[in-house]
Amino acid sequence: MRMTEKRDYYEVLGLSRNATADEIKRAFRTLARRYHPDVNKDPDAEARFKEINEAYDVLSDDQKRQTYDRFGHDGLNGGGMGDAGFGFTGFGDIFDAFFGTSQRQQAAYTSAVRGDDLRQDVEITLEEAAQGVTKGLRYTHLETCDLCEGSGAQPGTQSEVCSTCRGTGYVRHTQNTLLGTFQTTAPCGRCRGEGRIVTAPCSQCAGAGRLRRTRERNLKIPAGVDTGSRIRLSGEGDAGLRG
Ligand SMILES: [Zn+2]
Ligand SMILES: [Zn+2]
């Protein structure tokens, strides 16, 4: 794939692969002094000097060194994997490349989903800003339903494990392609990726597990705030899903 064969960076600096940062620095200094084109009149010295610089540039940088250790010269070209089209690191990436799903995403289908943050603007006068003030705040947000505690099932009834996906929340499809047989996964259509089916929906939230409620709360604005300041209230945004 490469036009010219590059020498191993450790070999260029005459080091072993587990050389310490100090050893790398020392080797670089010694070699750079020896091959500097101003000092060394050998016709190959300049190329050698460049090679030494390049090797030091990579090996003295922890991140670049790690990439080089794992992927060699090709790993450093074009910013690493992916750019070349086929820079797989593991089996999961093969799924990503062909079908856009990976093992990591599968796990997310059945786990809890964080609720959204809300934002509200509050206007205050200059005096209020200077002295600090307490403002009444009125906002509507989604709360976890207190009757079913977010499960969506009427209390006393049980949600059932989805028989289509056996509770996993996703289903597998096997696909035969020229490159071989691949398994893809998609969220289960029957339970919408929840893994469970509510047989008797909660009477208060109709099975949603969340309710829209308007709340009022006093917000204490400290003295000396400026235009555009943000104050964060935790636990007042939208409730998430499944806890
Ligand atoms: Zn409910
Ligand atoms: Zn299902």
Highlighted features:
243 residues, alpha+beta, Helix Hairpins, HSP40/DNAj peptide-binding domain, 3 domains, two-stranded antiparallel sheet, flat, binds zinc ion
Mind telling me the C-alpha Rg? 30 Å
| Number of DSSP E strands | 6
Strand content: 15-25%
Give the CATH superfamily of the largest domain.
DnaJ domain
Instruction: Return the CATH class of the largest domain.
Output: Mainly Alpha
* Mean pLDDT over all positions: 78
Secondary-structure element sequence? HHHHHHHHEEEEEE
What low-confidence regions span 5 or more consecutive residues with pLDDT below 50?
79-110
Q: Can you count the helices?
A: 8
* Sequence of strands across the biggest β-sheet: 1-6
CATH topology of the largest domain: Helix Hairpins
* Class derived from helix and strand content: alpha+beta
What is the helix fraction of residues, given as a range? 25-40%
* CATH architecture classification name of the largest domain: Orthogonal Bundle
Structural shape = flat
User: Major beta sheet, specifics?
Assistant: 2 strands, antiparallel
If you had to describe this structure to a student in words, what would you say it looks like?
With 243 residues, this protein is of the alpha+beta class. The chain has three domains: 9-87, Orthogonal Bundle (Helix Hairpins), CATH 1.10.287; 88-114 and 158-199, no CATH class; 118-152 and 202-243, Urease metallochaperone UreE, N-terminal domain (HSP40/DNAj peptide-binding domain). It contains eight helices and six strands, in the order H-H-H-H-H-H-H-H-E-E-E-E-E-E. The strands form three sheets. The protein has a two-stranded antiparallel ribbon. A two-stranded antiparallel sheet has the order 2-5. Strand 3 and strand 4 form a beta hairpin. Helix 2 runs antiparallel to helix 3 (45-59). Residues 79-110 have low confidence and may be disordered. The structure holds zinc ion (2 copies). One zinc ion (ZN) is lined by residues 162, 164-165, 188, 190-191, 195.
